[in-house]
């Protein structure tokens, strides 16, 4: 029976996942470790290092009871029965597979640390997103020890959506657990099943072999991203033909074989997983001699990049073919609402393209400004201003570009914002979040995604 769980990696996956396990399993001691001592200090403080609705309440309830955050990795490894590995696996930027393959150096270093400090047999759970058959390499590193220790490798990929991670963990669509098809592997798998079964109905816990579990994570994210790119491609066609992408998506989504989820057009998908996992899938397909399959999935990423480029192109065209020297208010920088995460946010691409056109940016986001400052640290001096409110960002601006679907943006006083802006005032809604007819009536020239613009040009 599992008594002591360790998670190596205190990021967006490890932090929330371990908090909920501790909350749901008060008899299990859960420890989260990380080499970043500053991050651990933040997990032990009143200001957590990540924003996620409901996370703070769970951490406060469990921290010091059966949930602990520590930088003492050796001790954590020695004491744990089960070790979740939730370290960063970014896309390689160098060497073979650069730009597509996963960089597994942090995973390998973690495995070597486990070998160094472990004093007994362990169950090691892959929580990071990994390419297929990574467990094989992980097993080789772990079992190359002179201590006679045995390790069972389990794949337990996360399917969290940032912004709803705590709800997803408490009431998941499914929990996927993969193990080796040996007696020892099946026994280890059942140990992990027993943890989740404390609160997840058994019929939602899916068990597979290791390789199926590893591949399912990549495929799930690829299929979701594919839907986003698909509807965004149709949004471009709708704008040219006079169709309304929302009407098209609503009608198509009523088909039970298609469904309505992820058929919402926007400026593009972001986050830590979609692009990375698709590129990883592309690399695997190329590696196994399937170039046509690789090209198919690569087109999903290309369409996402096209959407951001098209959005900026529409802005430049609408604003008399130049944004040079014009102030553009950027509302939202996180890749989605209810998170401060900006990894692969389409806002980064949009802002860089606008800066290349010599625009002046005024950026506001409720939770992501610190990350935005990091992401645009190389911007030309004086070209970017970070603002404390949407109203401050819009004051004196020629245009607003809404890039994150924060609900609070719907409640803004757009009448006052319009008065404070340069005229003609443009509003480009990259998330189709706002009431476009009302904004037009206030005086804005409104450019949604996937349907016709509402402009005052051509009026007498």
Question: What does the model show?
Answer:
Helix content is 43%, strand content 13%. The strands form 2 sheets. It has an 8-stranded mixed beta sheet with strand order 3-2-1-4-5-6-7-8, with helices on both faces. It starts with a strand and ends in a 13-residue tail after the last strand. The protein is an alpha/beta fold and 460 residues long. It is built from 17 helices and 14 strands. The protein has 2 domains: 4-200, Rossmann fold (3-Layer(aba) Sandwich), CATH 3.40.50.720; 211-460, 3-Layer(aba) Sandwich (Rossmann fold), CATH 3.40.50. It is elongated and about 80 Å long.
CATH C-level of the largest domain: Alpha Beta
Low-confidence stretches: none
**Given the helix and strand composition, which structural class is it?**
alpha/beta
**What general outline do the C-alpha atoms trace?**
elongated
At CATH level 2, the architecture of the largest domain is 3-Layer(aba) Sandwich
The count of strands amounts to: 14
Number of domains: 2
Strand content: 5-15%
Kindly report the CATH topology of the largest domain: Rossmann fold
Number of helices: 17
Which strand order spans the largest sheet, edge to edge or round the barrel? 3-2-1-4-5-6-7-8
The largest sheet, given as strand count, sense and whether it forms a barrel, is: 8 strands, mixed
| The CATH superfamily title of the largest domain | NAD(P)-binding Rossmann-like Domain
Give the overall pLDDT as a whole number: 95
Q: Which percent bin holds the helix content? A: 40-55%
Radius of gyration: 24 Å
Q: Terminal Cα separation, in Å?
A: 78 Å
